[in-house]
Amino acid sequence: MGRRECSRTMLTLALRCLHALALLLTAIVRFLQEHFDSAFEYLHRQDQVFSVPSHVGLILGTHDIQLQKLALVTRWCALGGANFVTIYDSKGVCVSLFDEIVKQTKMGVLDVCESVTLRTFDREVVLRNDKPLVGHKGDHNQRTQQETFTQHHTTSEPRSVVILVSSGRDGYGQLVSSAKRLAGEVRTSGISSNDITVEKVDADMKKNSPLLRGVDDVDVALVFLPLYHLGGFLPWNTRLTEFLRVGTLSNFSFEHFNKCMQRFGGIEQRFGK
What is the mean pLDDT of the chain? Predict the structure, then answer.
């Protein structure tokens, strides 16, 4: 009788252990899905992953700047095919952390790019990668699930990405300089003030601004702000930009990112019509 009771007790304990293990495994799976970008779900929906536009803006609140997460979002943009990523906050916190952003870019973005150029209004750093790129031919290393299915939508050509780190203080002096140059053209070149168009100012700004040199307009900007406003985001580079409010950076996952790209892909731009 004692032996039978002992066996029953051991069986009960074993069943409880198995139940606890099942709960633990369920919690681990949920954690991975939430914090590693819902990779399991997306493996079955590769056809729904949209490509990323050429230029993505990230508008941050000063209370929600997390450089590792910022590098991860920039990595998603690069893997999706973006050529430019603008990192912006109105107070210039990111600009003051430029050296740390360069460090995080080396660790979290450079391995998926042939080169990465990082710029502020008065600084520029170029990082070059001499190793096989993740998500490209010649890369025989184990890829993450996310990179595998993102590659489904990217080119086999090496990527070069420009990361612009800007603030609400950038560009205003350049706009004044541009106005002076164009006013000088009116005086000396015989052109009419009616010839000074938005396109002409835009071209002059991009030609002479160290931050905007050779940079396309922002296609889509993800707004990581508690209230829906733009925080003074640079207006002369956003004439055709779609702004999408996405909540906080800390809670932003790859699933959210992908949904934003799907949403942008479904927008019919009217170009003022």
Answer: 76
